[in-house]
């Protein structure tokens, strides 16, 4: 009896505690909402551009959702650019301070922000930049500023681009766990890390060409705004001519070496106030709340912008995963909406499932029959990412976009050697000749390998056909630029894989032109659940995230990177149309 009474009391106590927490949370949300409504921008202000969180193309937040932004781990590129565009015509904002960033964004995203800042300067407003540390990508963004300053004991990284590819052949041999790789015959760079211990000359050549093209694009932009010749910039990189603040100033990479309080004095001077007067700063987060409520483009007619970002997996998809569920639903809504006159598909993906890519490609093709479809490529639109873009009326890429990688492969884990080493023997029983298809613990049968090879070849030919039809190229022409080769946006333009170099706004303007629109609004798809909703729906997922962070701290970044690559291969199902390996460009 005492047990029952104590049990009921525990339940009531828990319910009461949850009730108190829920009420407190509602009060918290109310306070957050009221604070958002009261965001005030003072006259003679500076917009402080601090990019503190990872940048995704799109967060999918609903501005009317009181939970929007709660547990939000990323910043939306669309919101950042919107804020800069609104500030450009806001008389209260006199300039921008780019302050101490460790920008967590791809090169194309960084380039897009930089272009928006260039437009801001055209209104006669100033941009200053300051940092204790300028990492290479940070400096690329900061180089748009009128004046750049660094801490007297700071560091500036300017040495050229590089990347690292991990090879796992020896690890497989030592562990007894190997990846059985099946690929299109000439598609050699894909899955090379699972077949070799060293980089092939062909792969090294294509990566060198890619990195050189990306670097050239950065150098051209920096040369223009810093008035340093491209050849001199390369000399500075080769000699590490910016390795100390003193050398960075002598080489022209920065304008002065100052402490932060001295930097603020320069900002005060730019605002034409006394150096002892308080500077009115508006943080980016606060200004985004204000700018999100502003409409830069309006009209009864709409252009739908559909964001497809992340790896491609079969299924529903979400903020960081492209699935046929959420993307096709958005395409169908945009296609059937009478007010939507054109569609822009923003692709930021290294690829993934070939099946899912083809399902989305089909929906793009159906939409294209009804209204213009334009593709805007982000940091990467490669392999499956290019697959879903290939059928559009027009494709835009940033000069620093990574694209191409037209090819398919399959990987199947095999533990035969490990099983032998630890004394496991697997026996199979089946009713028909091919009933036992594949076992992790037995060598791959030639019949099974031939079956997968047939599917690989068929999928590759289908991929070539999709690109051939979309780009008005012969199959042979596509094949010559395919074979898994990756290209920069600039290179892709030269070989016919994209139509123009430009950002998302350029793609939207092209869509408006194809639809013969003079005035129009922009409608964004899809709308994701807020970070808080996802957190409440998946507390286990939140727990796993915490565990991953702890693991990363314990084993270090490099070991964690290896683990994540192995996990990624484990999760791949079916034939893959994806980037041959993860490229972390530094």
UniProtKB/TrEMBL annotation:
Catalytic residues? Answer: 188, 383
- The source's superkingdom equals Bacteria
Q: Which SUPFAM superfamilies match?
A: ClpP/crotonase (SSF52096)
| Principal location | membrane
- Keyword Transmembrane helix, does the record have it? yes
Q: Which residues cross the membrane?
A: 7-32
Single GO molecular function: ATP-dependent peptidase activity
Which family is it part of? Answer: Belongs to the peptidase S49 family.
- Protein's UniProt name: Protease-4
């Amino acid at each position: 009896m005492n047990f029952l009474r104590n049990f009921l009391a525990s339940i009531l106590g828990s319910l009461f505690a949850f009730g108190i927490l829920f009420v407190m949370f509602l009060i918290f949300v109310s306070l957050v909402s009221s604070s958002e409504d009261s965001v005030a921008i003072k006259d003679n202000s500076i917009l402080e551009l601090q990019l503190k969180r990872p940048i995704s193309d799109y967060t999918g937040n609903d501005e009317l959702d009181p939970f929007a932004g709660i547990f939000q781990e990323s910043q939306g590129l669309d919101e950042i650019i919107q804020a800069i565009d609104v500030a450009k015509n806001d008389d209260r904002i006199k300039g921008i301070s780019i302050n101490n960033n460790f920008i967590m964004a791809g090169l194309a995203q960084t380039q897009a922000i930089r272009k928006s800042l260039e437009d801001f300067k055209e209104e006669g407003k100033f941009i200053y930049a300051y940092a204790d540390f300028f990492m290479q990508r940070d400096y690329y963004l900061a180089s748009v500023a009128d004046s750049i300053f660094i801490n007297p004991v700071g560091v500036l990284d300017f040495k050229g681009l590089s990347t690292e590819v991990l090879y796992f052949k020896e690890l497989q041999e030592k562990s007894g766990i190997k990846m059985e790789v099946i690929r299109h015959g000439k598609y050699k760079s894909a899955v090379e890390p699972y077949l070799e211990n060293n980089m092939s000359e062909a792969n090294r050549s294509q990566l060198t060409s890619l990195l050189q093209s990306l670097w050239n694009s950065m150098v051209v932009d920096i040369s223009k705004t810093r008035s340093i010749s491209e050849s001199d910039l390369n000399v500075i990189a080769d000699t590490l001519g910016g390795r100390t603040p003193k050398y960075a100033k002598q080489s022209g990479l920065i304008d002065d070496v100052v402490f932060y309080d001295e930097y603020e004095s320069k900002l005060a001077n730019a605002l034409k106030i006394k150096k002892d007067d308080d500077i009115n700063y508006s943080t980016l987060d606060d200004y985004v709340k204000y700018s999100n409520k502003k409409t830069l483009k309006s009209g009864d007619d709409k252009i739908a912008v559909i964001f497809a970002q992340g790896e491609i997996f079969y299924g529903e998809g979400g903020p960081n995963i492209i699935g046929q569920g959420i993307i096709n639903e958005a395409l169908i809504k945009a296609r059937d909406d009478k007010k939507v006159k054109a569609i822009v598909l923003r692709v930021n993906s290294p690829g993934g499932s070939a099946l899912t890519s083809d399902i989305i490609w089909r929906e793009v093709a159906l939409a294209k029959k009804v209204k213009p479809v334009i593709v805007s490529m982000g940091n990467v639109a490669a392999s499956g990412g290019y697959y879903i873009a290939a059928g559009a009326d027009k494709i835009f890429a940033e000069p620093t976009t990574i694209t191409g990688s037209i090819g398919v492969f399959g990987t199947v884990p095999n533990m035969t050697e490990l099983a032998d080493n630890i004394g496991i023997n697997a026996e199979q029983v089946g009713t028909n000749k091919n009933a036992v298809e594949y076992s992790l613990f037995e060598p791959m049968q030639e019949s099974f390998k031939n079956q997968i090879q047939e599917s690989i070849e068929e999928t590759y030919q289908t991929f070539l056909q999709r690109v051939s039809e979309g780009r008005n190229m012969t199959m042979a022409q596509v094949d010559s630029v395919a074979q898994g080769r990756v290209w920069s946006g600039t290179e892709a333009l030269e070989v016919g894989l994209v139509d123009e170099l430009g950002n998302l706004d350029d793609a939207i303007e092209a869509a408006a032109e194809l639809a013969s629109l003079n005035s129009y609004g922009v409608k964004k798809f899809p709308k994701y659940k807020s970070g808080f909703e996802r957190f409440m729906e998946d507390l286990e997922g939140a727990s796993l995230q915490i565990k991953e962070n702890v693991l990363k701290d314990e084993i270090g970044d490099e070991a964690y990177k290896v683990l994540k690559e192995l996990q990624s291969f484990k999760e791949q199902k079916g034939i893959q149309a994806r980037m041959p390996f993860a490229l972390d460009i530094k």
